Amino acid sequence: QVQLVESGGGLVQPGGSLRLSCAASGTIFSINAMGWYRQAPGKQRELVAAITSGGSTNYADSVKGRFTISRDNAKNTVYLQMNSLKPEDTAVYYCNADGRSSYGNYPFNSWGQGTQVTVSS
Q: Among 43, 42, 95, 39, which residue's Cα sits nearest to residue 69?
């Protein structure tokens, strides 16, 4: 079983910054990629940013130049630095990890519980 624990959400003014963290733990053999998704009221969940264990990154067009994803492979932790925040960034942010379990070499795909990010003046 693999679990993800998120932290760093909160309320911030437009133009401000937040840093989200997500730590994976459990029966992990390897992690192929970790990412951040978000879901705003009335909207479908969308990919915000993702990073592979090798460091390749992918960003949604709406956050390019403002958000930065990074990871610490030794700690199985992924971060999302969010700068120049806009009200449109308001959403529940979910961490995701995709990899292979140390139990039976089975693949896994695990989600965090979600953390609220609110951008408002």
A: 95
Residue 59: both structure tokens together: 């960003």
* 4 touches 97 (CB < 8 A): yes
Q: Which residues contact 88 (CB under 8 A, 6 or more apart)?
A: 62, 119
Query: Of 88, 89, 72, nearest to 18 (Cα)?
Result: 89
* pLDDT tens column, 54-89: 999 999 999 999 999 999 988 999 999 999 999 999
Q: How far apart are CA 12 and CA 22, in angstroms?
A: 19
CA distance 14 to 52: 30
- Please give the DSSP secondary-structure letter assigned to residue 76: T
pLDDT in tens, 6-35: 999 999 999 999 999 999 999 999 999 999
